[in-house]
Structure formats: structure tokens, C-alpha cells
Amino acid sequence: MAYRTISSLSLYLVLISGSPGAFAQAGYFRVEPREGVWWFIDPSGNPMLSIGADHVSYTADEIQGTKDRPYAAALDKIYPDRNTWGLATLARLRMWGFNTIGAWSDAALWNRDVPYTVILDIDLRAGADWWKGRPGDVFDPKFESAAREVSEKNCAPRKNDPNLIGYFSDNELRWGPDWRGKETMLEMYLNLPEGSAGREAAIEFLRHQYVNDMSKLNLAWGTNASSFEHLALPGTTDAYKQDSELFLERVAARYFSVCAEAIHAADPNHLYLGARFAGRVSDAVLKGARAADVVSVNIYDFDPRPLVEHMFQVTHKPLMITEFAFRAEDSGLPNTRGAGPKVPNQQARAKAYADYVTRLESLPEAVGFHWFEWVDEPKEGRFDGENSNYGLVNINDKPYQEFVDAVKQANQAALEAHRKAH
């Protein structure tokens, strides 16, 4: 299948005409706008939203520093085997209005005739560490090799599966200053080991920017470095910030283009669903994300619309929320670690969910949402200490009934809300 770039004018004409989008493969999930509203199109040609739950897993989370998995221990006493749990869990998800199995879910659920997604962790496997905020070196040939190998191993065997929606390349990679550190991508690449491809790419970028004249860089950055190889970082001037954004744009373009090419080469039938941004990222990164078929983002807020609208303005691609959650203080869990607003009780949690979904699906570019997550985290904390009330069910597999009743209503109403989107 041929892939092509759509110009801004062509994209506008597609939006107003309702003709097929750039990625359209009959018999598999695709995305396209119809009468100005973006949709996933299922293999039968019907418009749909991807309404999913993340981490639908029998084993769920370990307690930090142990091998204990309290959810799995509870399930062992409830169900005769994992297959029975899987059937019961999928029935619950359908009953509550979900139609997609989200990231980090049990692979055993993928052959149950339910739409599902796969997270590949391409940059993670190439040396990045999302939790500590260490970036991978996308200019290293090993990154391209890793992307191909991961895609050939995980995508090629699934290329004929009509239930697969598509692939996430990674989750919450670091693109610059955030909760994991203050360094820009340019600074992080200049601090890579001497001789590394990424460091050489950053140095070459600066040589080109300043016509190989160190005095011009020092003047622009307000520094006194002796050479391009020994820069005094970080700079503080506007010129330094502009250079950082330009280099970040190069890194993002390289990351997304390599991932898109590798995924589609191994599986030309399914969608590349982006890299699950951790909330707001620079426009320089969003420009690179245009290589994806769908842009995915995790937004832990009461109202996702401002960010979703901005991201669409930059990328011109449909967007999917791949994590959102609200944590109730009456759940019995500490809720001291983890993302997302806290609310007083399950009733308030239910209202927050319904409001979020209604607001999101009022946008024509919003093609779905995945709740984080199926089951609560252990009160003692998971691997990173998170201990929050994220679950549709608690650690004993009992649903938060008032909450899931509202979830069901909101999920069922989402389709009509999106049909009316402007």
C-alpha cells in the first residue's frame, strides 16, 4: 500500500467533503472524516469511537519491592482459571460500554473477537528509559534496527487480524523539561557519550546554525565555550531556546518517521497510533507526530478540549485520549502517588467521567478515549509507588457500581455526542 503526505489544502478539502482519509485499507480499522467529523472506521465500514480500558490484566500490579500481586491472588479464589476470568471481564467491559482493549492488557484477550491495541515500546527497547526520562538516540543506526526488529516480531504476525486497531510505538517518552528533569533535548543529546551518533548530530546541527563559528554561538547563547565539542550548558537566551526547539523538531521527525516506516513495512494493514504523549508537548514534537495515523495523548484533567484542539491545529490528525482518570477519596486507597484529579467520592468520580467524555467527543477530531485503568493499584504502591483509585473494579474484583453505572451511560452517549460535533 502506498503512503502519501496530505497538504494543508488537501486536508481541508478532505475535511469538508467527507472523502476517505490518507490511511484507508478495506477490511481493517482505519480513520477518516465524514461530513467534517473524524471517526475510526471498523472493518465493515461503520464509523465508531475507540472506547477502551487500559491494563486489563489478570496479574495486574506487583506491590513495590515484592512479588506479591494482590489482584491476581483475589482472582485465584474467584475464578477456576484465567480463561473464565477473561470471558467474564470482556462481558463486563461490553456491558459497561467499552469496545476496545487498551494498552498493557493480557495478550490472551486479543483473540476474543474484540478490538484491541498493542504497545511496542520501540524507543524503550532501543535504550530509552521513560520513567527516568532518559531519551533514546534516534540518530543511532541501532534505533532504526530496533524499530524494524520490534515491528517484524510484533506487527508482522498480526497484519491479517481484523480485530487489531493499531500500534502505539511508546508511552510517555520525555521530549524536554518535565517532571523527570529540566534539560532540553538538545542538552540531553550534547551530554550523550562522546562519539555517539546523537551527540554528533547535535554538534553538527550547531555547526550548521552558526556557520562553524564558535564566537557567534557564544554571543547568541551568552556563553564562553571553547569549542562546539565543549559547550557550557545550558544556555539561557532566546537564541538558545530557539536552537533547542529546532533540534527537538529534528529528533521528533526522526523518531516518528522511523517508527511509522518500520510499523507499516511490517504491517501495511493497520494504524500507527502515535506515542501516547504525557500531556502537553512542544509544537516541535507535534510536527513530527504528523507521521502517525492517529495522535495519542494522556490527559489527566477535567477538560481535555483546550489541549486536544491545539494538538489538532498543529498535527491535522485525529486524536485519541489513551489515559485519563479521576481518583475518589472514599475508595480506601491512599491516592498519594499518581496522576489525575482527586474527587471526594464515587458520585463525583462518575460526574467527572461523564463530563470529560461529553466535552471530548464534542470535538470532531476526537476519535476515542481509553480509561486508566481496569483495576485499582495496590494500596502499598506498585513499582513506582503509585497507590491510587484508578480502577473500574477494586483489588477484589468488585466494581464501583455507582461509578460504572455512570461510565456505561457516558460511553453509550459518546457516539451521538460525536455525531453532533462541530
What features would you describe in this structure?
This protein is α/β, with parallel strands linked by helices and 422 residues long. The chain has a domain at 8-120 and 155-169 and 292-419: TIM Barrel. The chain is 37% helix and 12% strand. It has helices spanning 8-17, 70-78, 82-95, 122-125, 141-154, 185-190, 197-209, 214-221, 238-266, 283-288, 305-315, 346-360, 401-419; strands spanning 30-34, 37-41, 47-48, 50-53, 100-101, 116-119, 164-168, 271-272, 277-278, 295-298, 319-323, 327-328, 342-343, 366-371. Strands 5-4-14-11-10-9 form a six-stranded parallel β-sheet. Helix 11 links the parallel strand 10 (295-298) and strand 11 (319-323). The two termini are 32 Å apart. Mean pLDDT is 93; it is low at 1-22.
